[in-house]
Specification:
Layout lengths: L18 H27 L3 H29 L11 H31 L6 H22 L21 H7 L3 H30 L4 H28 L7 H11 L6 E11 L2 E10 L5 H8 L5 E10 L2
Parallel strand pairs: 2-3
Antiparallel strand pairs: 1-2
Length: 317
């Protein structure tokens, strides 16, 4: 016999930002802007494609870091705006997605300038260019140090919840990633990598006469950055599109219902993320027992990731 659906919801709790990441990003932003100016001017003056590419690359990072800082600030200011049904957290994810697109723009610029220098080589003042590249690498390492660990905010707990449903730490660490902080970190790492490649290319040109290494390393750097950009674009895009029905928490929801003390079948299930460690769930359940929605809701709320739960129960013969 079918009965009216019963709905029980827990009021959602949303992230209040990531102050550690925001502080680190703002410091890295100002240092990056200074180094960007130095590298672009130095690369142009000393005719080094590797240093110039690294400078333009760093300019995109300055823009991306500024975007990340703005995303945190805007999300915080709008946190009490009731127009956002599930809070403002996805503003941070959108910032990460946009940063990934900026990285692809940098890749295109690096490829264009590198090919241009391969076809039309120019003399390079190696000692000065190497010095600038080394300073750039140091700046990137300092920024990476400031941003270390900020993109995995809140992943340190084991998620056992006391009811024996252990799951992989790596999976949850990935699902709880702060995409905005991760985008800033990826930008800094990408710039550090291009600085290393620039140093190698310039050293090869100065000591071995392999001047072609300079633009070639620009192409290698472009390939490396494109890989990182694609990973960030893919992961942030999945969150924005609510395409995470393969997340570990989905299996845990099904397992919790299957292992309940009453017979029950999941007939409908929708899970989507509303925060770095928070998911909303709408679930339909068939059961031949008198167990109500409150019973199943309590089963699911043992999982601390679930902060908004709607249960619809249909009693069957």
């Amino acid at each position: 016999m079918n009965v009216a659906a019963e709905h029980h919801c827990q009021s959602p709790r949303f992230d209040a930002g990531n102050p550690l990441a925001e502080r680190g990003i703002r410091r890295a932003l100002w240092l990056t802007i200074v180094m960007m100016v130095v590298e672009i001017a130095g690369g142009w003056w000393y005719n080094s494609m590797a240093v110039l590419a690294d400078g333009w690359h760093m300019s995109s990072h300055a823009l991306a870091l500024g975007l990340s800082a703005f995303a945190y600030s805007f999300a915080r200011r709008q946190s009490r705006n009731r127009a956002y049904a599930f809070g403002t957290w996805k503003i941070e994810v959108l910032g990460g997605y946009t940063s990934a697109l900026l990285l692809f723009g940098v890749v295109a610029l690096m490829i264009w300038q590198s090919v241009e220098r391969l076809l039309s080589p120019m003399p390079i003042r190696f000692p000065e260019a190497i010095a600038i590249a080394i300073v750039g690498l140091v700046v990137n390492l300092v920024c990476a140090w400031w941003l270390r660990g900020t993109h995995a905010h809140g992943t340190e707990h084991a998620h056992d919840h006391g009811h024996g449903h252990g799951h992989g730490h790596d999976d949850h660490a990935r699902s709880h990633d702060d995409m905005n902080a991760r985008s800033a970190y990826v930008h800094v790492l990408a710039d550090a990598a291009t600085s290393v490649l620039a140093i190698v290319a310039l050293a090869g040109g100065m000591f071995l006469g392999l001047t072609w290494l300079d633009p070639v390393m620009g192409l290698v750097g472009a390939a490396l950055v494109s890989v990182w950009a694609w990973g960030l674009l893919r992961d942030s895009g999945r969150i924005l599109l609510d395409a995470e029905m393969d997340a570990p928490v989905v299996g845990e929801v099904r397992q919790a219902i299957a292992q309940s003390s009453v017979p029950a079948t999941v007939t409908d299930l929708h899970v989507w993320r509303v925060g770095r460690e928070k998911y909303a769930v709408v679930i339909g359940i068939d059961t031949p027992t008198d167990a109500d929605a409150g019973y199943f809701r309590n089963l699911l709320l043992e999982h601390e990731e679930l902060t908004h739960v709607t249960v619809e129960v249909r009693r069957i013969a």
